[in-house]
Amino acid sequence: MAAAYIHPTALVETPDIGAGTRIWAHVHIMAGAVVGPDCNVCDAAFIESGVRIGRGVTVKTGVSICEGITIEDGAFIGPDAVFTNDLRPRSPRLPFMREKYATKRWLEPTRVGRGASIGANATIGPGLVIGEWAMVAAGAVVVRRVAPHVLVVGNPARSIGHVCACAQRLTLDQGRAVCAGCHRAYVVNGGAVTPVHPIETWPDAVP
Amino acid sequence: MAAAYIHPTALVETPDIGAGTRIWAHVHIMAGAVVGPDCNVCDAAFIESGVRIGRGVTVKTGVSICEGITIEDGAFIGPDAVFTNDLRPRSPRLPFMREKYATKRWLEPTRVGRGASIGANATIGPGLVIGEWAMVAAGAVVVRRVAPHVLVVGNPARSIGHVCACAQRLTLDQGRAVCAGCHRAYVVNGGAVTPVHPIETWPDAVP
Amino acid sequence: MAAAYIHPTALVETPDIGAGTRIWAHVHIMAGAVVGPDCNVCDAAFIESGVRIGRGVTVKTGVSICEGITIEDGAFIGPDAVFTNDLRPRSPRLPFMREKYATKRWLEPTRVGRGASIGANATIGPGLVIGEWAMVAAGAVVVRRVAPHVLVVGNPARSIGHVCACAQRLTLDQGRAVCAGCHRAYVVNGGAVTPVHPIETWPDAVP
C-alpha cells in the first residue's frame, strides 16, 4: 500500500497516519491523534489530539472531531458533521471554571462503531455510542445512544427504521429481515438487529 | 467588468471563474467546477468538481457544495450551508461498497433555482430542487422539493408561507398577492405562486 | 499578561487583539473586528469586520461570526456555531437588491451575554439577545430572545430549564434555587432567574 498523501496546505502534526490515507487541503490533524490506513480526510477537516480513527474511514469536508472521539473502521462522517465532548460547556478562561477544566474529568468520550454513517451537518452529543452500521441522517442532532443498524433523523434524533450494512433500508418481518439489495440476513430480537453472518469489512486483517 | 479577484490563500483549480467574481481566503474550488461572473465566494467555502454556479451568486463563509449541485443566477447560500448528493452514504473505502462507488450512478443532483436563498447552516438533502426565489430558513434540514417562492423552516423543513423576489413575506388573498414592499404582483393557483410579470434579474443578457 | 499568540497560518487584519489571546490555524479575523484579552480562537474560525468580542471568550473550531455580533466576557461559542445578521437575505449582487444592501439598515445585531454558552453547530438568528449565562444546546436553532440562565434546545429552540453560572441545571423551588454543584443562590420571579449575589467573572477589572 502506498504511503499517505498529505496536501501541501494540510497541517499534520502526528506521525500516526496510516498507509494509503489521503489528507486534503487545509486539514489540521493535531499531535497525538491517530488516523488508520486507507482513510480519506477531506478539505478543512479538524482532528484534535487524542482522536482515534480506524481503517478506511471517510471524513468529508469541514468535519470537526474533538478529543475523546473514536471512529471505527469503515465509518463515513459526512460534510460539516460536528462532535462534542462536554455536556455543560463554559469558557475555560472563566476563573471560576478553571478547576473543572484543570483535569479531563469533564470529558465524555463518544465512539462511532464500525461502518456507521454520520450524515452531513449532523451534531453528535457527548458521551454517546453510535452503533455499528447505524445511520445518522443529515442535519440530525443526536442526544442518545444509537443502536447498531438503526436509522435516526431529526432534532432530537429519533429512530425511524433500520439499515443494512450496505445502507439499504430493512423491512423487519417476524423476527428477521433480508436486505432487498445485497441479501444479507438479520435476526431481530426486541428491536435489536443482528446480522446472521458477521459483516466482513476487510478480508485481510493486516493492511 | 473586471477580472476575477482571487485571494492569495484561495485554491482555485478551475479556469472557469467569471469576470468580476471575488474569491476570498481559504476557499477551495476544484478542477471542473464552473463559477459564473459577478459572484462573491466567501472565506473557506468548498466547491467540488462538477458544481455549476451561475451569475451574481453569493456563497457565504464555510459553505460546502459537492458534485452534482447547480446553483442558478442570483442565489444566496448562507454561511455554513451544506449540500449532499448521496441518500445512503457509506465509506467508499469499504471493499463491499466499491461497486456502488465505482460509477456515479449513486449521485443525486440538486438544483437551487434562480434567486433562491439558503439560510445559514441549512442542510440540503440529495436529489432536490429548491425553486426560484424560494427561501430556506437558517438551520432548516430540507428533505423534499421546495416550490418557487415558498419559505420553509425546521427539521424536517416544512412550508410556512411565501416570499416575494425581494424576500418580503407575501399574504395570499383570493388567488393573488401583491408584495407590500416592492409591489410585485403574483397569481396563486393551487398553492403555486407565479409572478404576474417575469422577474428580471440582469437586464443585459451578456455580462 | 503575555502578548497575543497568532498561528502562522491565521489571517489577522485587525490590531485590536487583546493580550494573552491565542489565535489558531486558518483563523481569519478581519479589519475592524475587536477581540479582547485572554480569548481562545480555535481553528478556522471566521470573525468579520465590526464584531466585538470581550475578555476570556472561547471560540471553538469553525465558528462563523458576522458583522453586528457582540460577544461579552467569558462566553463560550461551540464548534461550528453560526451567527446571522439578515432576516431576509438575497444575493446583494442582484440589481434590484442593491438599494437594500447599499446601506447597513438591513443589519440586525445580536448580543451574546456575559458567560453564555452557544452549543456546537447551533444557529443563531438575527437581531437577538442571548442572556447572561444562558445555554443554547448543540444543534439548536435560535429564533427568539433567550433570557439569562435559560437552557434552550431544538429547532426552533425552546426553553427546557435553567442553568447556573457554573452550567449545572437548576431546580426552581418556590421562588428560589440553589445550585447543587457550586451553591450559588438565585431568586425566581415570573420565570426570570436572578443571582442573589452578582456573579463575578474576573475579580480585577483591569486585565
Describe the fold and architecture.
Three copies of one chain form a homotrimer. The first copy, chain A, contains one helix and 25 strands. The first copy, chain A, is an all-beta fold. In chain A, the strands form five sheets. Chain A has a ten-stranded mixed sheet, with no helix packed on it. In chain A, strands 5-8-11-14-17 form a five-stranded parallel sheet, with no helix packed on it. Chain A has a four-stranded parallel sheet with strand order 2-4-7-10, with no helix packed on it. The longest helix of chain A has 5 residues, at 98-102. Chain A has one domain: Hexapeptide repeat proteins (UDP N-Acetylglucosamine Acyltransferase, domain 1, 3 Solenoid), CATH 2.160.10.10.
Radius of gyration of chain A: 18 Å
Largest protein interface, residues of each chain: A-B, 44 and 29 residues
> Are there runs of chain A of 5+ residues with pLDDT below 50, and where?
none
Order of strands in the sheet with the most strands of chain A?
Answer: 1-3-6-9-12-15-18-20-21-22
CATH superfamily of chain A: Hexapeptide repeat proteins
Residue fraction in strands of chain A: 25-35%
Structural class of chain A: mainly beta
Overall helicity of chain A: under 10%
Biggest sheet overview of chain A? 10 strands, mixed
Oligomer: homotrimer
The run of helices and strands of chain A is EEEEEEEEEEEEEHEEEEEEEEEEEE
Number of contiguous helices of chain A: 1
Number of strands of chain A: 25
Highest-level CATH class of chain A: Mainly Beta
What sort of overall outline of chain A do the alpha carbons produce when their principal axes are compared? Answer: globular
CATH topology of chain A: UDP N-Acetylglucosamine Acyltransferase, domain 1
Mean pLDDT over the residues of chain A: 96
Please name the CATH architecture of chain A: 3 Solenoid
Total number of domains of chain A: 1
> Distance N terminus to C terminus of chain A?
8 Å
